[in-house]
Structure of Putative 8.9kda 1 8.9 kDa family:
Amino acid sequence: VLLVQAALVYAEVFNSTGQLVFVNDTCLYYGIKISNDRFKSFHEPCEQWWCSVKKGYLAVYGCERPTVDPYCGVPVKAVYGGCCSFTHTC
């Protein structure tokens, strides 16, 4: 079994999208509340969010699946960081 690391992706979400709201020193994004200067990690999607009320945005870190054809990858079942890895099964 070969372990492959996916490419990392970064984006900044500003409140102009309407989905990001700042309330009482927290970020509220798609119904998920994150305290200022804190991270929230997920498995699906494989992302990590960081709230910055002072800077006025939410940073989203994620990863892309490798595009080698044919790619027989199975994602590692873990939160962000670990889920950016895939096992090559063919």
